[in-house]
Amino acid sequence: MRLGSFELLSLSDGFFRLDGGAMFGVVPKPLWEKRAPADDRNRILLGIRPLLVRSGSRNILIDAGIGDKMRPKDVEIYGMDRARHLDHSLADAGLSASDIDVVIASHLHFDHAGGFTVRDGDTLRPRFPRARYYVRRAEWEDATHPHERNRASYLAENFVPLAEAGVLEFIEGDGEVLPGISVEETGGHTMHHQLIKIQSGGRTAVFVADMMPTTAHVDEAWIMGYDLYPMDTLLAKKRFLREAIEGEYVIFFEHDARTPAGIIREQGGKKLVEPVIS
Ligand SMILES: [Zn+2]
């Protein structure tokens, strides 16, 4: 879709599955399974949708999916289906990895940062050879000093090679990182998780990442059990939802299996997502 001077393309790195209970926190299964049916292992289907922002000849990628470094055991556990992955999706847009100029990370969990690096023989290197990678410094600190509760999500192979290759740009706080593209810390999911806002021609699009991973998560209380600070997610969502409904923002849902983007409308006290791409 067009947004002022930008072109926005929701890409795909395939699909995977996570435990439905963990995806919806305190929401009981009889409620969530109406929106996201579970398989025989209680897992629900999720998309993996990095966002490509094109500005003239410049290509900016927000998050990069799971990538291809996962062990066969994890491919099985997460029911990963990458028959069509990010390289295919970029090719559909007439691009390859070497056309990406900038990569921006919402946070460094493996399903967002896995595609940042690739294996090259015995070593690991940046997946996008010409790109600078923008990472929030405080998120980097947390990812490189994991604890028991977040260790399974932060895999050093996805981001440490970026530092070794000297391609990192640290984001110190909220604000514009490139013309028309800004970041805002949401906290909640991780302490320094951030959303990415794209503004042009009087319109706003937002890549909300794991603050609202699917359209089912636009309800305030539908917060993931994975979140480290769920009350911070609640506060950030409430503030953001008011702003998004009033401003008719286009929201990109990174993990929705069916609806990559939509506008949130309020009708009779209920929040609905009107799809803009499907
Ligand atoms: Zn995450």
Structural account:
- The chain is α+β, with helices and mostly antiparallel strands.
- It is built from 8 helices and 18 strands.
- The protein has helices at about 20-25, 30-35, 70-75, 85-90, 110-115, 135-145, 160-165, 230-245, and strands spanning about 1-5, 5-10, 15-20, 45, 50-55, 60, 100-105, 115-120, 125, 130-135, 170, 175-180, 180-185, 195-200, 205, 250, 260-265, 270-275.
- It has a 7-stranded mixed sheet with strand order 1-2-5-6-7-10-11. It has a 7-stranded mixed sheet with strand order 12-13-14-15-16-17-18.
- The radius of gyration is 18 Å and the shape is globular.
- Zinc ion (ZN) binds near residues 107, 109 and 210.
Q: Can you summarize this structure?
A:
The chain is α+β, with helices and mostly antiparallel strands. The chain has helices at residues 20-24, 29-35, 72-77, 86-92, 110-113, 137-144, 160-165, 230-247; strands spanning 2-3, 6-10, 15-19, 43-47, 51-55, 58-62, 102-104, 117-120, 123-126, 132-136, 168-171, 175-178, 181-185, 194-200, 203-207, 250-252, 261-267, 270-277. Zinc ion is lined by residues 107, 109, 189, 210.
What is the total tally of β strands? Answer: 18
Low-confidence stretches: none
Beta-strand content: 25-35%
* Main beta sheet: 7 strands, mixed
Distance between the termini: 12 Å
Order of helices and strands: EEEHHEEEHHEHEEEHHEEEEEHEEE
Note the total helix count: 8
Outline: globular
- By secondary-structure content and strand pairing, the structural class works out as alpha+beta
Query: Level of helix content?
Result: 10-25%
> What's the overall average pLDDT, rounded?
97
Bound molecules: zinc ion
| Biggest sheet: strand arrangement | 1-2-5-6-7-10-11
